[in-house]
Structure formats: structure tokens, C-alpha cells
Specification:
A seven-stranded mixed beta sheet has the order 1-10-9-8-11-3-2, sandwiched between helices. Strands 6-5-4-7 form a four-stranded parallel beta sheet, with helices on both faces. Helix content is about 40%, strand content about 15%. By secondary structure, the chain is an alpha/beta fold.
């Protein structure tokens, strides 16, 4: 079984719009700017974990957008590859052009700035750690990152090059998260999970608010799904909109499909997938109810489909890592001719990370961004 239908009502029909106005050039990127002068929030209790208070709402997305504005770029919508059965209506939300190379900068910045911690522990497959490491380097924060077995070596090396400490565990994501919680308590630090936190979900949700503002007549949004922070955030952004939200999971780690079918959060054994950022074993406590109550469909794609989607993106100038190509793989599997957006969630390939090992101050250059622009 490769798809799970969760909502029967299709979005209300609406008039065909003019083609969205796409930026002629992509936004400029660089090292995050200095922290704005503002009263520093009270430091949270050391060792606090995933869910301090109720889950986020739409107002939290607006607050997050304002908070993180100095630290992120508004990524463009690019025209999708024309040579597919999906027709000309497919757009790509280019989060591979975000500071830190992925959408993770949004949730990381929102949590760091709101919590005001000076010592942080996280568990991450790589992109959340890279985002936190960039912020920590800029803001003078001590960061420890716990990595699971199978974490991408290039990402781990880049995290260390940015000045963070890394700790490796032998097991999967569940063991990684357990170790991160223990380290946060031992070191009197604050735990900022990669997805299972209201502030992280709210920050990730700004991806959805941007794409729906830029392409308001979107009929379906395809979202890569691991721990569920991005999917939950997009669900919040689409809460009162006539748009289908489709989560796309690697077929080897269908933790949301299994959980929603069971009616509760289900933990899977450690799985393998070429999409190293989507190896989560269990839905997060914060994202799960948001996803449960709003997602329209879940689609599973295998490694061959993911790699084919990544290769298709590469041929059209988008340097996406496998996790970043998962949403496109889901859109291709669905095969719907409609106005759709696939979120390209990250582009931290080994080739793009390699220069960072030698120069930690380096980030995406204008030439990197221009080479990723799709013109038709």
C-alpha cells in the first residue's frame, strides 16, 4: 500500500489564476545577521524537552515569521520540471536556497530566539543540527548534537566545522532522542528537538504561509515527512484554506501512515532510506495531532523514486539532497494534473557541504543560487 486517503472532501473549485509571478532572481543568502537588539527572554528550565505548553496555532506562525525574519530568506517558487506528466502547474518551494541549506533554519531560529538559551542540546540527522550550529556560531551559544547511526558523514563534519560538539549513538532515531534528553539534563542545557516542539513546528510552518501567499490558488501541497514538523506546520498554514496537504514518506519509514491507521502514535524499528533526514521512527507528540486533524493524504515512495526525483531536479538546476526530492517523488507518483507545490526541503549534498569543512563562514553564494534557478 503506497497511499493513505484521510479526507474525502476535495477542495472547492476556484477560478484559474494567472501564472504566479516568480522572482527573476533568487534571494541573496549569507551568514545570519547579528542578533537584533531586543530584551533577551528568560532562559528556560535546563533539560526541558519536547512540548512546553499547548501545541502551536495559526497565530504562532505569524509570530514566528516576525521573529525569524532577520535570520531567514523568503525562498522563491520555481517552475517545476516541464517534462513530466504533471503539466505546467507544478511549482517548487525552494527551501534548498535557505540559510543553512534547508527549511530547518526556520524552526531552529524560532526556538533559539524565543527561548534565549545559551547552552543547547539537540538530536538531529544533520540539517537541524546545521541550522542550529550556524545560529550558535553567530550568537555565541554552546551546542551539542547527538547523531544516530547512519547520519550523513558530510553533515556531521560540517556541524563540527561550525564549532558544535557531536555525540554518536549506535542505534536509530529513538536512541538518539533518548540520549539527547539525558545530555540536556546532565549539562544543564535546553533541548531543542528537530521537529517535536511547538516553536520548531511554528517556524517550519512559515514555509506554508509563504507558498500559499505567493501561489494562493494552489490545489495541493506535497510535503516531505520525517518527524512531522514541516508537515504539521504546513497543515497549520493551510488550516482554513481549500488546499489539499499531502505528506510524503519514504516507504521504509512510514511512521505517520502506520500511526494514523492505528489511531495512535506508533514507533517503528530503525529503518533505512536514502532520504537520511526522514528516518524518524515515531511521530512527534506535538506534530501528530495537527497532522491527524488536517492532512488529506499520505503517500509512500521508495528509494528508486526518490533518487529519480533528485536526478530530475538536478537536470533542471536544483541541487536537492534525497530528502529534499521526496515531495517531488510523491507528486510524480500521484500523477495529478493540477496547480501543485512540492517543497524542496533541503540541498545539503556532500558537494555543497565540502567547502564548509575548510571555511565555516562560507554559505550559499549568489552563483550557487543562480545556478539553481529554473527558468521554464
Amino acid at each position: 500500500m503506497t497511499a493513505l486517503d484521510l479526507r474525502r472532501a476535495a477542495p472547492a473549485p476556484h477560478s484559474s489564476p494567472a501564472a504566479p509571478q516568480l522572482p527573476a532572481t533568487a534571494p541573496k543568502s549569507g551568514v545570519a545577521p547579528p542578533k537584533p537588539s531586543a530584551p533577551k527572554p528568560s532562559a528556560p528550565e535546563p533539560g526541558v524537552a519536547a512540548a512546553p505548553g499547548p501545541g502551536p496555532g495559526v497565530a504562532d506562525l505569524r509570530a514566528a515569521a516576525a521573529r525569524i525574519a532577520p535570520y531567514v530568506v523568503r525562498t522563491p517558487l520555481l517552475r517545476g520540471p516541464a517534462a513530466t506528466a504533471l503539466g505546467p502547474g507544478l511549482l517548487l518551494k525552494a527551501e534548498h536556497l535557505q540559510h543553512g541549506g534547508s527549511f530547518k533554519m526556520r524552526g531552529a531560529a524560532n526556538a533559539v530566539l524565543a527561548l534565549g538559551a545559551d547552552r543547547i542540546v539537540t538530536g538531529s540527522s544533520g540539517n537541524h543540527a546545521l541550522a542550529l550550529a550556524r545560529l550558535a556560531r553567530t550568537l555565541g551559544i554552546r551546542l551539542t548534537v547527538v547523531l544516530a547511526a547512519g547520519a550523513a558523514p558530510a553533515k556531521a563534519a560540517a556541524v563540527r566545522a561550525l564549532g558544535a560538539e557531536t555525540v554518536q549513538v549506535d542505534g536509530g532515531v529513538a536512541e538518539r532522542e533518548e540520549r539527547a534528553r539525558a545530555l540536556a539534563a546532565e549539562r544543564n542545557a535546553v533541548l531543542i528537538p528537530s521537529s517535536d516542539h511547538p516553536l520548531v513546528v511554528a517556524g517550519a510552518g512559515t514555509v506554508g504561509t509563504e507558498l500559499l501567499a505567493d501561489a494562493p490558488d494552489t490545489e495541493t501541497v506535497y510535503v516531505p515527512t520525517g518527524g512531522g514538523g514541516l508537515l504539521a506546520g504546513v497543515c497549520l498554514a493551510a488550516l482554513h484554506r481549500p488546499v489539499r496537504v499531502v505528506g510524503v514518506e519514504p516507504s521504509g519509514t512510514p511512521r505517520y501512515a502506520r500511526s494514523l491507521a492505528a489511531g495512535r502514535r506508533v514507533q517503528l524499528p530503525p529503518g533505512t532510506t536514502v532520504a537520511d533526514g526522514l528516518r524518524g521512527q515515531c511521530p512527534g507528540a506535538v506534530p501528530y495531532p495537527i497532522v491527524r486533524d488536517r492532512v488529506d493524504e499520505l503517500i509512500a515512495v521508495d528509494d528508486a523514486e526518490i533518487l529519480a526525483a533528485a536526478a530530475l531536479l538536478a537536470r533542471h538546476g536544483v541541487d536537492a539532497e534525497p530528502s529534499g526530492a521526496v515531495a517531488l517523488a510523491g507528486a510524480l507518483r500521484a500523477g495529478r494534473r493540477e496547480r501543485a507545490v512540492a517543497v524542496v526541503s533541503g540541498g545539503n549534498t556532500p558537494a555543497r557541504l565540502r567547502p564548509l569543512h575548510h571555511d565555516p563562514t562560507r554559505t550559499h553564494t549568489d552563483s550557487d543560487i543562480d545556478s539553481n534557478a529554473i527558468t521554464g
